[in-house]
């Protein structure tokens, strides 16, 4: 595995975690949205990740080096809606309240979203650290040749 492979793999992690943070931000922004375009409350969204497959020439599969090959990073395959039920909140003065005074609120829990945001942020930072470490190793390797 070369220096550029490590940078490429970490860059896929950066892209995936950035998308995850964008979706989490959208969830938090819509935590109180009781009506969307289709007339229902906002539904929480979740990003689905999948391992990217590394493009490896067939000739490398036959060599001894194939034992050390790793995956090709991560990619976001979908953004799906969370199907948990909406929260029912008693607020008879709300414009969207039903005849009993209950309002259907989005299935977004701000605390859960904040924890998810922290984990996405930490994963993003870890990928940045890997890229910086890889660059440092490459620079040190070039200094050996002096």
Task: Give the arrangement of secondary structure elements.
Elements (H helix, E strand, L loop, with lengths): L2 H27 L15 E7 L6 H4 L12 E8 L5 E4 L11 E4 L4 H35 L2
Antiparallel strand pairs: 1-2, 3-4
Structure explained in plain terms:
45% of the residues lie in helices and 16% in strands. With 146 residues, it is an alpha+beta fold. The chain has one domain (3-83, 110-144). Strands 1-2 form a two-stranded antiparallel sheet. A two-stranded antiparallel sheet has the order 3-4. The radius of gyration is 23 Å and the shape is elongated. The protein starts with a helix and ends with a helix.
What are the defining features of this structure?
single chain; 146 residues; alpha+beta; two-stranded antiparallel ribbon; two-stranded antiparallel sheet; 3 helices; 4 strands; elongated
The structural domain count equals 1
Q: Report the sheet-strand fraction.
A: 15-25%
**Strand line-up across the major sheet:** 1-2
Order of helices and strands: HEHEEEH
- Give the overall silhouette: elongated
Give the low-confidence spans.
Answer: none
Total beta strands: 4
Rounded average pLDDT: 87
**Number of separate helices:** 3
